[in-house]
Amino acid sequence: MGVLINTKRIKEPFLKACVALWLGERGGKEIQVSVDGAEPDPDEFRRTLEEAGYTREPRKGSSVDWTGIYRNDQGIEITTISMPGLDIEATFPDGRRFLAEAKGEPTPKGFKAGTDLTALYTCLGQLIFCLQDPLPEERALCLPVTDRIVGYVHRMLENPMVINLGIDFVLVDHEGNIDHKKSNR
Known about the structure:
This protein is of the alpha/beta class and 185 residues long. It has one domain (12-181). Helix content is 32%, strand content 24%. It has helices at residues 12-25, 43-51, 108-112, 115-130, 147-156, 160-165; strands at 30-34, 55-58, 68-71, 77-81, 88-91, 97-102, 138-144, 167-172, 178-181. Strands 2-3-4-1-5-6-7-8-9 form a nine-stranded mixed beta sheet.
């Protein structure tokens, strides 16, 4: 995809925008992303989608500049809200559903302290806690590409609980490219 070259860390709004664009490329029709003001630079979500050719219709009643409905010239719509819950939802024309929790890359100081791994564990816990019947056909953790995260993802793909839960991993690099690691369910 290569939407934007992000020379700094992969913050959560950029990561979420890249996953939303990827879902649109895969045929997702009802894509909804939650971006809240507690995230670092939440407006990066809007800028990333605009650089990819999307225009924004502001969300009525919202006072923030990134919520609303984003549309491109191919008819793909991405709705952005600012609410608690899972971060990314999509429905496909065949009825399949995709639900995901996302975490961005920590600061260098946070990385040194291991907050990237804490975020990975938190991400997994949030996804498991928020899943309800009927389970979506696709469930994923969306994470930044770093050597340590990629190493842990490979280990998690071998974990029997992760396999039984059918959790995929959607990894986003600095250029917005997606590496979808499917679980062996």
